[in-house]
Amino acid sequence: MYLKKPLWNEGTEFGKGDASGSDAKAHDYGAVGELVNSLHRQRVYREVTLALRTGLRDARAEFSFLRVRALRSILKFLRSVAESDSTIDLFVQTQSIPELQVVPVLFEHSLKESGDDYSDNRVGDLSHILGVEPKKLTSPSTDAEVALALRVLEGCCLLHPQSTALAHQHNAIQVLMNILSTRGVLEQGACLDALISLMVDSSSNQMDFEKCNGIMEVADLIRDKQGDENLSQGRPNIIFIIYSDTMLNLSLSLTQL
Fold first, then answer.
1. 3-state secondary structure string, the chain?
2. From which domain of life does this come (predicted)?
3. For position 222, what pLDDT does the model report?
4. Measured between alpha carbons, how far is 106 from 143 in angstroms, rounded to an integer?
5. What phi and psi values does residue 60 have, to the nearest 5 degrees?
6. Which of 108, 182, 194, 223 falls 20 to 30 Å from 143 in CA-CA distance?
């Protein structure tokens, strides 16, 4: 969903009247301008919250194709938000509201670890046959869904730095390292970008990356797939820089103890 421009705000330019205009007119223009700006901000906030509520509702769906559609919509929405500082500020405000937070939904559904609801509940458990409530099955995440979820995660962390803390609460680094080692090239490229966004200015995620022996995992991945340009275009270098900076800061902290 793209954020729309208000028709009633087009062509409205305040402060460009006649130089001979009175102070009263200037004051009126200023008051009207403030009103227009306030109405515009309220309208954009409603659009932001509506886009998030709609997208997150489908991102929790049982079927992968619905989640994929929702993730595409959220990704387009984030790109639209990134076009101006004012919409970024509004998005940041929404992420303080639990029901509008994007990152938890990603890890609870699209980035959920394998071996969960769908595979565990298909066979072996017949209690639902004698019960009243029907068995709820959730289709596993497809490659496209995982890649889209990683792109959405990257966008959230770049627009809203506190999203890295939310991701840390869901063991984001461990989840992404598992994706990096088990998924295909499409997901691996998105995973490297998401790792970068997670570790920027986040010491907790950086330390998790160190605990997972992440630097060696990335090095092994690049060595195994040297011919793949999608995995070798600068991303590993950025990760190495972040990792080196983390280790340097850790060493300095230890020497000061």
1. CCCCCCHHHCCCCCCCCCCCCCHHHHHHHHHHHHHHHHHHHHHHHHHHHHHHHHHHHHHCCCCHHHHHHHHHHHHHHHHHHCCCHHHHHHHHHHCCCHHHCHHHHHHHCCCCCCCCHHHHHCCCCCHHHHCCCCCCCCCCCCHHHHHHHHHHHHHHHHHCCCHHHHHHHCCHHHHHHHHHHHCCHHHHHHHHHHHHHHHCCCHHHHHHHHHCCHHHHHHHHHHHCCCCHHHCCCHHHHHHHHHHHHHHHHHHHHHCC
2. Eukaryota
3. 75
4. 14
5. -95, 5
6. 223
Overall residue count recorded for the chain in this entry: 257
At 106-129, the pLDDT tens digits run 999 999 976 544 444 444 455 555
